[in-house]
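Shapes recur. Our protein:

. . .
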Amino acid sequence: MTPDELKALVRSVPDFPKPGILFRDITTLIGHGAGFAASVALLADRAAAAGAQAIAGMEARGFIFGAAAAARLSIPFIPVRKPGKLPVPVLAIDYALEYGTDTLEVDPGAITAGENIVIIDDLIATGGTALAAAQLLRQAGAQVGHALFVIDLPDLGGADKLRDQDIAVSAIMDFPGH
């Protein structure tokens, strides 16, 4: 399937989570077998081209696409978790959200020093979560030079923030506006 065909599978939900927001819902994309498979294949191909030795995905939708792409490439998947979900000592980072702060955690034992880790998530908006994940992975010793997304919302500037941190960004599709 082409990126345009995949884009047609993404549902747009007006006024969610608040009035004036047009939410891009990937539920309809992952619910379409051929569309989901094509999305994973595109992400896996791009990760392979970036020399990925492992893929990291952020909870929760980054797990869906990241784990599937890692399995397709037969390389490790590293979950970047919300607080309190990992049963071992973790590395953690606090980061700013549009309406507050949050924390991400990773098991440092899951990362080999110098390992080339590609980040995969469903969507890049303001870039806060992806930037935090990259910083956390780098703190753990990883090389993070690429981030892949199903959807980019370019008007929100997240991809540019990643590029400012020497992270190449690629998305299957974009939706101008928000």
In short: The mean pLDDT is 95.
